[in-house]
Amino acid sequence: MTDSAPRSQPRTPWRAVFGGSIGNLVEWYDWFVYASFATYFAGAFFPKGNDTAQLLNTAGIFAVGFFMRPVGGWLLGRFADRRGRKAALTLTVTLMSASALLIAIAPTYDQVGYFGAVVLLVARLLQGLSVGGEYAASATYLTEASRPGGRGFVSSFQYVSMTAGQLIGLGLQILLQHTMSDDALHSYGWRIPFVVGAVGAAVIFWLRRNLLETEVYTEEEDHQGRDRGTIAELLRHRKEAALVIALTMGGTVAYYTYTTYLTKYLSNTAGMSKSDASLVSFCALFLFMLLQPLAGSLSDRIGRRPLLITFGIGSMLCTVPIMTALSHADSFAGALLLSLAALVIVTGYTSINAVVKAELFPTHVRALGVALPYALANALFGGTAEYVALWFKKGGVESGYYWYVSACAAVSLVVYLTMRETRDAALSRGRADAPAAPGKQRTTAV
Q1: Rounded Cα gap, residues 390 and 281, in angstroms
Q2: How far separated are the first and last CA of the chain, in Å rounded?
Q3: Could you say which DSSP state residue 3 is in?
Q4: What is the model's pLDDT at position 243?
Q5: How far apart are CA 190 and CA 38, in angstroms?
Q6: Which of 85, 171, 304, 320 is most buried (CB neighbours < 10 A)?
Q7: What is the dihedral of CA 49, 63, 96, 145, to 10 degrees?
């Protein structure tokens, strides 16, 4: 960028990528450590008894957080469309910091009975509110800050940062498992990652204060001022909103199955130790993270639909054999290869789902259009994935969950086969994806 570039433009090539995605890391670190450390704190908030029953209780609260995401998607999506992407990104990370701190200091069942579980529930509601807005604000920011022909690559960093947050959470879990006794982890060690999350979110808040707004947003800042980010305006794009829900359904179930639920599945079903199961997840997620930009870049060349279709077919046909094989995995290498195979398939969805959704909507309702339908789909399918899996297990028909994941993928596959290609969609009225006018530079991230 030159010195004459407008203030709405990032001054350095990767500033938009870093600023738009770094908060995602902390958001999803906090979101993920709840799931990955649940095996340690489940007994702290509920009466002692059957381990699966305790996990069901914590998974139920985990799912409740997802049902708050549509509220966050509506409120913060509207906020992002009316006040800007930067303002929304700053607000979401503030809420996440508060929720992590609440979990870190929550009293246990032995201390105050079920009041501790109430505190845990309130924290999860705040997390759901925050993540419901973060996904859309980040997706729209990264998409709008990308040059034409590079949106898939840049937007893929949303899942790079999300996965990095999960890896940090898992890495910390592995570190604590090797430096603390099992009794200490169950007693107080599980609070450490939430303290780390609260501090990390405070640091990201400071970094995001200097984030610059996208040019696409500022160009249309005065367009339909009263209708920006409203439900009435979103209803004018109800076909696109329904499309977001349908194309998300299969992807979100598969994603949470092989990320947040995988460690519990390997431990609770395959019989692996908690430390080995965590290490399998860590290695698989690390390789999965590296695949995201490669797949995003590929979508810029061949389109979004081919990757989505590949995911749909792969997930529909391979979920049952992969999950069945994982249930009998008796070695680290075998579990890792199977987990990685599943995540390679899921990459066809994760690497581009954010940009596809952002490309469906016009600027003045883009954040809300991405946030609310996506959050609804996650509440119905992603947030309940772990609970449904444990419910099948408790009922003695765990394999039923494998078929459930396959069926969700089949529904989304129909959408992938019939939807329009979005790669060349215009993000700004009257500009399409043509070169910028003389004297007017774009906000670019690559």
Answers
A1: 19
A2: 11
A3: T
A4: 92
A5: 9
A6: 85
A7: 150
The neighbour count for residue 183, using CB atoms within 10 Å, is 9
Cα–Cα distance for residue pair 431/4, rounded to 1 Å: 21
Query: H helices within 269-398, ranges in order?
Result: 274-302, 305-327, 332-350, 353-359, 366-377, 385-394
Instruction: State yes or no: pLDDT of 145 exceeds 70.
Output: yes
3-state secondary structure 214-238: CHHHHHCCCCCHHHCCCHHHHHCCH
Q: How many helices (H) and strands (E) does the chain have?
A: 21, 0
The pair of structure tokens assigned to 94 is 């503030």
> For residues 30 and 245, what is the distance between their CA atoms, to the nearest angstrom?
25
Give the least confident one: 122-136, 208-222, 267-281, 412-426: 208-222
Give CA–CA dist 336/258, Å, rounded. Answer: 11
Nearest to 73 by CA among 368, 362, 359: 368
Calpha distance 63→104 (Å, rounded): 19
46: phi then psi, degrees, rounded to nearest 5? -135, 155
- Interatomic CA distance for residues 388 and 231, integer angstroms: 31
Residues 371, 376: Cα–Cα separation, whole Å: 9
Measured in residues, the chain has a length of 446
Which residue shows structure tokens 């990264």?
142
Average pLDDT on 404-419 reads 95
Q: Using alpha carbons, list the distances in angstroms from residue 6 to 10, 429, 439, 442.
A: 9, 19, 11, 9
Residues 278, 280, 285, 287, CA torsion sign: positive
- Rounded Cα distance, 88 and 76, in Å: 6
Mean pLDDT of the chain: 82
Question: Which of 108-112, 306-310, 340-344, 438-442 shows the lowest per-residue confidence on average (mean pLDDT)?
Answer: 438-442
Q: Is 30 left (phi over 0), alpha (psi -120 to 50) or beta?
A: alpha
Rounded distance, CA 136 to CA 20, Å? 11
pLDDT at residue number 56: 67
What is the C-alpha R_g of the chain? Answer: 21
Instruction: Specify the 3-state DSSP secondary structure of 103.
Output: helix
Q: Alpha-carbon distance 399 to 378, whole Å?
A: 22
Distance CA 138, CA 367 (A): 9
